[in-house]
Amino acid sequence: MVEPPPRFWELFFEVYEALPRQGPGNRVSTAKALALCRDLPVSPAVLDLGCGTGAQTLDLANLSSGSIIAIDSHAPSVALLKARVAAKRLSEKIEVRVGDIAQLHLPPDSFDLIWSEGALYNVGLGKALRICHDLLRCGGYLAFTDAVWRKEDPPPEVTESFASDYPSMGFVADDLAAIEGAELSLIGHFALPDEAWWDDFYRPMQVRIAELREKYKGDAEALATLAELATEPEMHRRHSEYYGYEFFVARRR
Fold first, then answer.
1. How far is CA 114 from the centre of its chain?
2. What is the mean pLDDT of residues 3-13?
């Protein structure tokens, strides 16, 4: 794996933390997935894994009357979400923590709903699903999004991008097999619509990159990193038929 330039992650987070969402998703899709969790308690105990700056966390707080623990490994994102929670006077409903999905140190059988948009792949989908299984109460739900291939033989630039970011990415059938292997029962799944990629993610990203190009005018290293980050939305514009995000809802048996 090629090491990124020294300032890559600094600039990466300067772009991503300013966005409404740090990955594909929207409130409509969150609500659609939540609606598949038909037998939740009136006030469910919810765990949001890989919450980022919390767009979906706040949507869940508005769509559900439950309590939420939101966890992310990136402390600055957690700080941003804590500030948003405080500003919206939701601190009694949402607890935000720094944590690692692979080492959560949470009691088993303690959540009615585990939510994760675009984060489980970081520890390997199979391992993440087993972790979620053990944290769910019997009959509890898991709702997560995952990047999947849609077509065989993607162009080289797409293959190279995902070989770096998500080398084990599979097709929907592979995720369904992983769900079954984790002793979870599939409730339903659906593809994220195109607007879930653009409205709160790629268009704001393009605006943010333009702002930072102005800020770092004359800084060749920063401009090169921003140019690299700008290739992602353009790749999606050209080749989105080859890959996408799927929302899966499953249940502990």
1. 13
2. 86
Residues 6+ apart with CB under 8 A from 249: 33, 36, 37, 141, 142, 143, 186, 187, 188, 189
CATH number of 25-196+241-252, picked from 3.40.50.150, 3.40.50.300, 3.30.70.1150, 3.90.980.10: 3.40.50.150
CB 51 within 8 A of CB 72: yes
In terms of Cα–Cα distance, which of 204, 168, 240 is closest to 26? 204
pLDDT category, 248, cuts 50, 70, 90?
Answer: very high
Nearest-5° angle of CA 219, CA 223, CA 224?
120
**Per-residue pLDDT at 2:** 59
What are the angstrom distances between the C-alpha of 232 and each of 68, 105, 160, 202, 217? Answer: 32, 35, 12, 8, 21
Looking at residue 216, its pLDDT comes to: 97
Q: What's the rounded Cα separation, in Å, for the pair 253 and 53? A: 31
> Which residues are CB-neighbours of 209 under 8 A, at least 6 positions away?
15, 226, 229, 230
Percent of the chain with pLDDT strictly greater than 90: 96
Distance, CA of 158 to CA of 188 (rounded, Å): 28
Average pLDDT over residues 163-169: 92
In this prediction the pTM is 0.94
